[in-house]
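If I may wish for something, please walk me through the protein I am sending here so I can picture the backbone:
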Amino acid sequence: MTQLKKRMVQLEVLRYDPEKDKEPRFQKYTVECNEEWVVLDALTAVKETIDPTLNFRWSCHMAVCGSCGMMVNGEPKLVKPYLIPKEKKSIAEGEYKQTPAQLMKYRQFSMCINCMLCYAACPEYGLQPKFIGPAAITLAHRYNQDSRDGGRNERQEVIATNEGVWECSFVGACSEVCPKAVDPASALQQVKVASTIDWFKEHLLPGGAK
């Protein structure tokens, strides 16, 4: 068996107990982590092996629900799985409206129920632990396709990478097992095509991508 690589990581966690603390305070922990762990894994290890009083909220651990969004080194971390309006509007200005055609462009990819069967079926996820995976990338693509959204460039920095969509070898197992016919394999291929077009625009067209 291959021995997992370990590393020592120091976490500085902002904590607050209203019954004991006058104001929030930072507490340091040093914990042994596997190389592929994310911050949430390290926090869980602290709670299980060092300090059971440490509490935090999390849910799916797949970067699709937003429950475990947190500030890491002063920056909010998540894959932007939510709508980022192109233009901010006040309540008085009314709703962000779409045509039926604009809705149908992404509706299929919004039907995910977070069962994670696609991750269980995906051979690349089994081989590449850092692979973001089909459900998370499909959700990002859902918002990228939304006519009201303006956050595509931020998401592309995460999903249009080797650890993102380019790890996918298009086996298609994720779509075969999806109980809601979301077809994540199609979403990933669409992201690849769009990312390739981005590259050509940036490198070959005068003035770069617009």
In short: The radius of gyration is 20 Å.
